[in-house]
């Protein structure tokens, strides 16, 4: 099955525009070349540094909005840039006033991150531009007009902003296509990992695989959230766009695939033991693996706008159907009970393939109810203020980072003033780039920044020595600037080396570039040290402190998710929007728990407490979440009320038990656990007659699996509390 749902013209140009990093690099290249050409043509080579720095700051502030959204963002950015630059120029002669304002500005702008990633990016770029202004004023060899530095920096920012708006208007859905492509590729990786459970690996390898699966699930959730964020901005500006309607359908198909991929049915080991002589589990492994490959192909097709080929996964489906048909005719009576569980599993896999098969047929279509499918957040001054004030607490990561950044930059400024460091404001610039919200990410960025700076300085010294011609050095500066933006997300060492090379080449045009090589290294080391000390001592976000509350939140959201899902089996009319909202919160909580564990594993040894126990808890939590997700894959199967009572009460018991676990962690008291009551519920489910009702059997078997995971979660939670609180926690009954 090969069709082409993508028809755009001119095709080749659109493909270039659709390659995210390449298009980013092209915009930066045009902007830097334009700034260089202007400076050269009017014989003001000294303009090149502020213009280049303005371009860089504006590019760092670029958001993923459509062209209308980018116009609004650009206006906000330019106002902030102009106010900041003039403020820095006015206060630089007064160190006490400047230091105080720097602290307030750093805190206020960083707190802007509470409004979302878009504003966090703008705030970070504004702080960076303030330091660029300091560097420019500090390096000035003669008195300049008061407008000189602010106007040139803002002009460079405006020039890049205009290019960004034009690009967004011409390549309307480039960012959305890139995000969708990444989403399908991440789902494909998740399916590849899931396929390794068929047939199940050894007991020792299962937990490792489950932990990898949980971590990849977090990546899928991040990709889903990014696509949704972009769709929200697009729907607000052009809700009736036909192509947008198709991309919304791609998003919902990805959600459905993810929902089915994250589902778990019964115990895979029991299925493997029972059907040891059949090839069905190997068929399922191939099908899931090929589905993962198909997801990758869909992602590449969306990115490159070419046809989608799903023949391999369709052939794998045919193999599963043949194997199941043979097994059904040959199944022994003792196998029949688990055969039904196997059939539910294969039905889910087949439905997943049906979702994949929808993608080649998608055409442009207007979606008049797009805003209903993806509700738009209501933005008012009150809601904005509420978002910020809600984060004004020491428990908020945004608040902690704002305080940390404010103190770190102020300390850096005090060091510069007292040590009289040449080109000292690079200390602040390094702090801005290196000091990140978590210790693990800061440490990683610190090593990369130092290594990249050393490589860049060696390269700069070599190149300006080999090529003393001004024109060649300017070309090197432009190329280095482009390399920085292409690589800054995934190859930060190379990106740092490139921006260091650009800085030295630019400074060599207005002064002696050799004189900034050693100060750049010293400033980088000082700024990195300040960042490390800040993230270690100032309101540190040690993950081991966050894990109990994060785990409690995960249990609470899973309980709400299960409660909402059970309504599909008991009621005819269920609000789909409420369900989606509950599901999204549950998925986000599960992903946050995994990422918090990963952060803890990157922290110093004495802060990595109970790592093995937490790994087991995270694995159990994600496995429980997988069993709950299976209810979503089969939702809508109403069960007769007479047969429903026991199952409804069992699900209510699980929900309440999960909420009790959450509350025990939040209130720091022991987990109440009645083993006799627990076993009674398991026996009640075991004795339920369900031979004639497939829907009821599905609910019964999934609830039994949930009981198994819940028992382990409560046991491990109690074990954790005993380790933390010792004798203060009572033993399990």
From TrEMBL:
Keywords: Cell membrane, Membrane, Transmembrane, Transmembrane helix. Residues 74-354 form the Integral membrane protein YccS N-terminal domain. It holds the Pfam family FUSC-like. Its main location: membrane. Residues 413-533 form the Integral membrane bound transporter domain. InterPro entries: Integral_membrane_YccS, Integral_membrane_YCCS_YHJK, Memb_transporter_dom, YccS_N. It is found in: Cell membrane. The keyword Transmembrane helix applies. The chain crosses the membrane at residues 21-38, 44-61, 73-90, 96-112, 119-137, 157-176, 422-439, 470-487, 492-511, 517-539. One of its GO terms (cellular component) is plasma membrane. The keyword Cell membrane applies. It is a multi-pass membrane protein. Belongs to the YccS/YhfK family. This is YccS/YhfK family integral membrane protein. It comes from Marinomonas ushuaiensis DSM 15871.
